[in-house]
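User: Structure please.
Assistant: Input sequence and predicted structure:
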Amino acid sequence: MKLFDGGMGTMLQRHGLSVGHCPDYYNISHPDIVQSIHKAYKDAGSEWITTNTFGTSPIKLSDYDLSDKVEAIAEAAVQNIRIACGNKVHIAGDIGPSGKFIHPIGELSFDEACENFYRSAKALSRAGSDYLIIETMIDIQEMKAAVIAAKAACSLPIITQMSYLEDGRTITGTDPKSATILLDALGADIIGANCSLGPEQLLSVTSDILSVTNKPVIIQPNAGLPIFEHGETIFPLQPEDFASSVSRFAELGVSYFGGCCGTTPEHIKAVKKILPSLPASARTEISPFTALTSRTNSVFIGDAYAPVKIGERINPTGRKKLREDIQAGSFVSVKKEALEQIHAGAHVLDVNMGVPGINQIDAMKNAILQLSVLCPTPLSIDSTDPKVIEAALKIYPGRPLINSVNAENKDTMRQVLQLAKTYGAAVLCLPLAKGELPETAEKRVSIIRQIIKEAKEIGLRKEDLLLDPLVLTVGAGKDGAKETLRTIALYKEEFGFPCVMGTSNISFGLPARPQINAAFLTMAFAIGINAPIINPLDKEIQKAFINANLLLGFDPGANHFIQSVTTESTSQKEPPKIDTNQSPLEALKDAIKNGEKEIAVECIKKCIQEHISSESLIQDALTPAMTEIGDGYGAGKVYLPQVMMAAEAMQSAFSTLKELFPNIKKYSKGTFIIGTVQGDIHDLGKNIVAALMENSGYKVIDLGKDVSIDTFIESSKKYNADITGLCSLMTTTLPELEATVKVFKEKMPGTSIMVGGAVVTPEYAETIGADSYSKDGIDAIHKADEIMKNRS
């Protein structure tokens, strides 16, 4: 096990870093302090030293009006390590998050995020870093942007570290396996986790990471979970206690270990002391596998896994209503099809926007953007146009399937394969080449060899490629089905890659299509098809999957098969579909919960037509919908992107209500003022709380960040605030939080004070006299509702 350093912020505060000053600029203004910290870690045994550049990006430095200093700070940071440590350590150029969410959770575009991280990576590389370490990321989409930008900027090895909560997911809902699968595919050299949790809490996260990658793993925990003691928030693990946890990480197979918040050279020294006595790693190499991911889930495809259903129904070919909606710029039908397929058991959704006469780039972007929030399943981007594919890849927060690449045009083939490499996607290889259609299995295998050769030259791995045997309608030739099955067999024999096929093509132009499709699918299962593209609502197809799972050994005890037979014998219901006979209020609730703005607006209009009062709309649909979303978030069943999209749908519903009734008094639970206290420039969490509070019915006055006590008081008086929310994300601003609460109690005793933030605890809130504490945006709504209820 190799040893990294520990916390930098902790040490800078010990050396006098005060509230409101830029830690990164200390590289220039106080190089002696930064050098002394680096030397202390080197002397403690650190072999890898991280630059003091966590916030050295144009976006983060703009908070201090220092955006033009990225290169100067990076240069000074690397120089400080070399002065302090010589050539005895490896330098890891540190890149932290931008402090902003990428659309659709936030306003930052993917390209803007890439530009931000590109400049940081370029500066740290030119300054002489040996590695880049992208750390403390809570959004997989931002991590993806940072890795892509870093690879474009330089050729240095890249270390990636996500930050997970106690439920084992990031705040935006990504689990360690899904994150690691994508990061491995993106080309990260070392993968791991840091911050947020102590060593004990990171053990299960570490196990998940190690279960899906052979890359070296790095773990840098905090010195325990923060607690409030003697008037301040502290990290409780002493150096010896921190070091005692290392043996369990070593046994799991962790290659690099260090510390994050609350750790010091003393902690690293204690770890160094026990390194010689650590147990041997029990890590074994895992076999390569193919997997797709969404933001929140992973789907594994191959002979070792049960067959995967890829839903085919988001395709406008022969679908008049779907085609007309897409042409009109509406994605209501697209989302309806998505939900129905998921309810019917689809594991992956294929998305095709092939409508003539439209901007397919915009259509695909909009579809992927909305479906990536609505659906927990991974998506398949169904296009052969590199521009359409890249537009979708940029905004997709996971590892999708590109459907597909062929050999008809070598330049286009290489473009698509390069996109898969750059964005960490898997790609489906289709045996088509310039000239005639390959009718025999041997010709198809020959074409696939060409595609695989190009893919390997570009740097794609075996696990990045899936093979399509090419399904042609049996109505056009009697041997079509047999040749497809032979192709699957030859693929398995020569390549061993997972196989995907468009099942419904076999029956094109024939009657009784479901019967033919199911029979052909059953034959293909026997040969080795892994992920057929099918209609998951088709009952015959459903039966074929249930039977295949039983016969292929993926239904131990035949439990699923018996359940399906029992259900069928007692009920002849159609496959699950979205309820189209709901009451208008129930339909509105579902639209809000699914984040479907367009449907929410139509439901509002329909409710008004049926003379449902605005009070009933709010009390019986809008408010309960957000309550259910909030409860789901609290239970870990709904994640931040879904919450934010539901909030947007709620806002659209309210706006429509206001348009229809201009004189209607806007419903408001009360007035809520929020801001981060003076000296604190971190506002990501505060922005989430403000958005959720507003969309739950509160009038929100967002004062921004670094807000003085006088501004809080004046604004609370001006707007007659019912509740004032004070945020503190830094331990150094806790005294300011306490002082602000004290002044409020003296000057505005009638205003309830709610406090929160990463370093704030319930105990601290009670000690300083706050009226309530909230751990996140949903909790803030619940606490605010309690306060207002007690006032009425």
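The first strand starts at residue 2 and ends at 3.
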